[in-house]
């Protein structure tokens, strides 16, 4: 939970200006001015380090590595990609599919084929789900400066894929 909080907080630090332009996100703590960037960075760093350390000490290094990797993938790959290229949807789906795999790794200390079933289902479910969501919120996402798959595809294509 702490690693996920760190990833989410880092995302909001990087997207403060974009969030301020979107109706859906303009009232978040950073764009609304309720929290400063230094406070958010301090929180994100502390939560990420503490969460990773807890996973390493109370679960195992595999879980800690998966948690830290997911934080990095979300905050430092997916977040910037949202403004550059629609491939971010596939990267974001990896991030969203990781929690059950991380839980399996924490409980068993390994990753097996069985451990990949739920993450695979989540991954493939997220693509059409997000494309529909992006289409419905297309004006807000466009105002925020995002390059999302659902924004670049027609309504017909989204309905066919979904």
Descriptive notes:
- Helix content is 75%, strand content 0%.
- By secondary structure, it is an all-alpha fold.
- It has a single domain, classed as Orthogonal Bundle (Tetracycline Repressor, domain 2), CATH 1.10.357.
- The longest helix is centred in the first third of the chain and has 23 residues.
- The two termini are 30 Å apart.
Features:
Tetracycline Repressor, domain 2, 162 residues
Average pLDDT, all residues: 93
How many strand units?
0
Task: Give the overall silhouette.
Answer: flat
Regions with little confidence, pLDDT below 50 for 5+ residues:
none
Largest sheet: none
Please report the first level of CATH classification, the CATH class.
Mainly Alpha
Domains, number: 1
Summarize the topology.
Blueprint: H1 2-14, H2 16-20, H3 37-59, H4 61-81, H5 88-108, H6 117-136, H7 138-144, H8 149-152, H9 155-161
């Amino acid at each position: 939970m702490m690693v996920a909080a760190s990833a989410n907080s880092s995302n909001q630090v990087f997207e403060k200006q974009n969030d301020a332009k979107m109706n859906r996100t303009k009232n978040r703590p950073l764009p609304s001015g309720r929290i400063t960037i230094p406070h958010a960075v301090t929180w994100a760093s502390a939560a990420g380090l503490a969460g990773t350390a807890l996973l390493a000490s109370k679960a195992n290094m595999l879980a800690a590595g998966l948690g830290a990797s997911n934080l990095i993938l979300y905050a430092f790959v997916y977040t910037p990609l949202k403004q550059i290229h629609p491939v971010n949807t596939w990267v974001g789906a990896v991030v969203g599919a990781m929690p059950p795999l991380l839980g399996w790794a924490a409980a068993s200390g390994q990753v097996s084929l069985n451990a990949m079933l739920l993450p695979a289902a989540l991954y493939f479910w997220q693509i059409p789900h997000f494309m529909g969501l992006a289409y419905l919120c297309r004006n807000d996402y466009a105002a925020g400066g995002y390059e999302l798959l659902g924004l670049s595809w027609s309504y017909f294509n989204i309905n066919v894929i979904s």
